[in-house]
Amino acid sequence: MTGMMIRNEATVASASWFLASARERLTGILDPGSFVEFLPPSERVRSPHLAQFDLPAAFDDGMIVGRGRLDGRDVLVAAQEGQFMGGTFAEVSGGKLLGLIRAAIADPDLPRSILLLLDSGGVRLQEANAGELAVAEVMRAIVEARSAGVAVVALVGGRAGAFGGAGLTAATCSRIAISEQGRLGVTGPEVIETNQGVEEFDSQDKALVWSVTGGRSRRLIGGADAYAEDTMTGFRAAALALLDSPPPFDLLTLQAEQERLAERHALFGACESAVEMWGILGIADPEAVRDMDDAAFVAIAAGVKGMDHDAR
Amino acid sequence: MTLDDILANLFPAGHDVAAGPDRLILGTGRRRNGGTVQVIGIADGEPLGIAGVLPLAERVLRVIAAGDGAPILVMVDTCGQRMARRDEMLGLNEYLAHLAKCLRLASWHGYPTVGLNYGKAAAGAFLATALATDILVALPGAEPAVMDLPSMARVTKLPEDTLRALSRTTPVFAPGLAAMAEVGAVAEVWDPRQPLDAQFEATLANVPGHDVRDALGAARGGRRLTADLVRRVAAQATGGAHVAAS
Amino acid sequence: MITLTLRYTTRAPMPGNARRALVGVVASGNLEVLLERTLPDTECAVEIATPVRGYDEVWTAVLADFVERASPGGLRISINDSGARPDTVALRLMQGARLMEATR
């Protein structure tokens, strides 16, 4: 044990994943008392680059890495703190995550499962090169870990979503779980609007933003492998369901992914809206997807073709 | 150098590589030793979207399936990923990651992969292509960057002049080739006055068997922390339960 | 960024036996507070890193009040501030003290 105490009033099982901090999520998802942190805050591994931008550093650089147990199973874990610098990949945060995954590759005695609690806008611009390169290193390490038989599961449901390098990182993992509030993509709506104009993407239109990048659409089109309720128990259950039988990282898997992505492009390439895509998927009342509760969504999603696959 | 100049210089024994109307680079070059090089890439600063990823990834998968072990050269001049609502709606993150994974799989199967940045390279398109190779080289004049300074100024809400001043001293942050080399992303910068085919062969002979970019960044002083952090996390992870220093 | 260091002699050691605690996050209007039981029983040292200038007196007042209320003897307290209001600072300090008071 690191002996690190954290606030625990918000980590009851029904607490919102979206609203929780990264540490609360770890406490909420792992078996009680099982979390052991590597390079904990007391070691003060901070970014040396933020001060020149007059920005405060954090004692963990917004990246918490360690190990714990999930329903009795040993797992390695990494969690991004989306409230600190948008959970961004940077020199320290990226190095910690890279170290964790490389340790799993090098030491077969370490747990054969890694949970990535992603909550990140992508690369930290104040450390842009280090952050970008960290993502590249992490993506490479993830596929090497997968080749070594490690299941790498991404959990997406935090306030910063998983964009930019975090979006690519998620799609490099063996599996992805996402909640209704989870958002997954590359370029965020604000950046598209700034660069391409409001007629391309109105970032103020919350319903539009949600339909394009949100968890339900991602799950329906096979961009995520499990749909989690926005609670600690919800993500715990989703993670457990995804840890077993991850797709192998091999030619057959990537050929299947090629086919899957080409098919998606052919099927939805002309769609103007996500609702149109959901209609093509055979959902009787696609307009209703937005407002139904989680149980109703899971029920109508159950029959959708192509949603469950090993092509990742 | 134009793409055609580079290709002619790289493959004096001949090639059929060209950029199509979609600005995707596809083709095969001949090596001096008679072997072939599979070439994929993106030209003219074109953004990489889902329509661009599919043929490039398909080519890489076909090369792997063919099983001849030929090197793969990834030539990159792209302003970044396509910024469009529809690409995002269809899951561009999966497409870009798919291309990166295909390149990593090629390496895993013994195909050396070399990235050549000869123009722009940015953001998600950079991760999907050149940064997913075994070794990345560049030609002088290449402009790798995560984001240009004016865009960065908008996002960080810092004055552009401040950013420009900082970019002169801080390789972890500065856009451009020199900084990307210092942090370890770009392994070598080729000399355009010397024959490129010989430099390509020399690069191929130097393809590292594992990811050395953290060590390179430390050795060059542009990214001093990563390699050390990787070691420290591994030491605590493999040392069993971490005993906190009191 | 500026750094403030404050030192106190407390009337008693911090109760409980938790060795360290972390509360809050570094986010706009918020702060993180790391508390570590590493000092002699009646000493308390506080180090504050903040981008906000000109609030030394406010920090001094908030910390003095906290030391008076919680008697955090033995604690090294390290703060990364991101423009938190004094009431938020006071709240985080008390949350941290509560965690350190835990006995196990």
Write up this protein.
The complex is a heterotrimer of chains A (312), B (246) and C (104). By secondary structure, chain A is of the alpha/beta class. In chain A, 38% of the residues lie in helices and 13% in strands. Chain A has eleven helices and eight strands. In chain A, helix 2 packs parallel to helix 3 and helix 3 runs parallel beside helix 4. In chain B, helix 2 packs parallel to helix 4. In chain B, the strands form two sheets. A seven-stranded mixed sheet of chain B has the order 1-2-3-4-5-7-9, with helices on both faces. In chain B, strands 6-8 form a two-stranded parallel sheet. Chain B starts with a helix and ends in an 8-residue tail after the last helix. Chain B has eleven helices and nine strands. Chain B is of the alpha/beta class. Chain C has a single domain, classed as Ribosomal Protein S5, domain 2, CATH 3.30.230. In chain C, helix 1 runs parallel beside helix 2. The longest helix of chain C is centred in the middle third of the chain and has 15 residues. The N and C termini of chain C lie far apart (38 Å). Chains A and B meet through strand 2, strand 3, helix 2, helix 3 and helix 4 of A and helix 2, helix 3, helix 4, helix 5 and helix 6 of B. Strand 1 of chain A pairs parallel with strand 2 of chain C, so a sheet runs across the interface.
Identify the notable features of this structure and list them briefly.
heterotrimer; A: 312 residues; alpha/beta; 2-enoyl-CoA Hydratase, Chain A, domain 1; 8 strands; C: Ribosomal Protein S5, domain 2; 2 helices; 29% helix; globular; EC 4.1.1.87 (chain B); lyase activity (chain B); Malonate decarboxylase gamma subunit (chain B); ClpP/crotonase-like_dom_sf (chain B); lyase (chain B)
